[in-house]
Specification:
By secondary structure, the chain is of the alpha/beta class. It folds into 2 domains: 86 residues, no CATH class; 129 residues, no CATH class. The strands form 2 sheets. Strands 1-5-6-7-4-8 form a 6-stranded mixed sheet, with helices on both faces. A two-stranded antiparallel ribbon has the order 2-3. Strand 2 and strand 3 form a beta hairpin. The radius of gyration is 24 Å and the shape is globular. The two termini are 24 Å apart.
Length: 264
């Protein structure tokens, strides 16, 4: 539901509830309520698992992020910007935010093909520990300062952090990947983010990295399973509702709204 700010003056209410056949729905009320309760519980369990996985990843980042790492990533970004992007006359560029991936009932999905259509030149950022944000923020600010429009792609597990960056005007993409992923057959460059972490710190942190990866994967698997169960229950809900909805009324309402919009 979307509540209008200025009903009648700017927006209008659209009541699709008129299409329900209420007498028929009363006969399946108990089945609907039971299914709805289970459906919500599955989502709640999924969100708890995702929240725990995100917290573990954040703890690992806090362990590995140091001023030295931040300086190395900033230096790497400056080198890439100098090599790949020439200044454009229109300054500065614009930033759009778009999610490129999500956690779904089918698993963790990233629409790499969407990026490759716009940006054939790909930097693969190999990033087991979620540290690519530090590089991407410098690349974003540098590209904008040089006059390029960019698409900033947040991490679905931590939306305040960047996971990918697209610069379509330069045909350039910076795509974070984890083991087993390969968005491009022959990427332009490969950057291993963890090499910016000091060798001693990486050695000391290996047990924590293994723990974070093992527990994080288990939590993600449970979250995906819960989302799949929620999807199945949602399908059951639709099957119950379907015989008791007047879809011809829904279609007529859509046509009337479209006509009203076109006449304005």
């Amino acid at each position: 539901m979307v509540e209008p700010k200025y009903p009648g003056a700017v927006e209008e209410y659209v009541n699709l509830g008129r299409a329900y056949q209420r007498e028929g729905l009363q006969e399946v009320k108990g089945e609907l309520m039971s299914c709805m309760t289970g459906y919500k519980a599955c989502y709640q369990r999924a969100y708890r698992c995702l929240g725990a996985a995100a917290a573990i990843q954040e703890d690992l980042r806090a362990t590995l992020t140091t001023p030295a790492l931040e300086e190395r990533l900033a230096k790497r970004a400056r080198g890439i910007l100098s090599r790949e992007l020439k200044a454009r006359p229109a300054l500065p560029g614009q930033v759009k935010q778009r999610f490129l991936g999500a956690v779904t009932h089918k698993g963790v999905m990233t629409l790499y093909d969407t990026a490759l259509i716009q940006c054939p030149k790909v930097y693969e950022l190999h990033d087991r520990c979620g540290l690519a944000h530090g590089l991407l923020t410098h690349l974003l600010s540098g590209a904008v300062a040089k006059g390029y429009d960019v698409v900033a792609c947040p991490d679905p597990m931590a939306p305040q952090r960047l996971a990918h960056l697209l610069i379509p005007q330069a045909g350039l993409a910076f795509l974070s990947v984890t083991p087993g992923q390969s968005p491009a057959e022959k990427p332009w460059r490969r950057v291993r983010i963890e090499t910016g972490v000091g060798g001693d710190l990486m050695r000391r942190s290996r047990p924590r990295i293994r723990f974070a990866q093992k527990v994080g994967e288990a939590l993600m698997e449970e979250a995906v399973a819960s989302l799949a169960q929620a999807k199945s229950m949602h399908d059951d809900l639709e099957a119950i509702y379907h015989p008791y909805v007047d879809f011809s009324l829904v279609d007529r309402t859509a046509q009337e709204l479209a006509q009203t919009i076109l006449e304005k």
